[in-house]
Write a structure and sequence with these properties.
Length: 59
């Protein structure tokens, strides 16, 4: 699980460098799902679904 947590930190830094980078949010969402972190999974899922790109994610 250490690699996943490290990836989340890297993605967080990436978001600081870009504006509304939906690809970073999608990758974060996948990691939260693997970590069974339902709170953060739901938060990123909502952000993705409400983006201007209108993504649809499976539950």
């Amino acid at each position: 699980m250490g690699n996943l947590e490290s990836a989340l930190k890297t993605y967080s830094k990436c978001k600081d460098l870009t504006y509304n980078n939906i690809n970073v949010s999608i990758q974060e969402n996948l990691i939260y799902k693997k970590l069974n972190d339902s709170l953060n999974f739901d938060k990123t899922k909502e952000k993705i679904q409400n983006s201007k790109f209108n993504y649809t994610l499976k539950k």
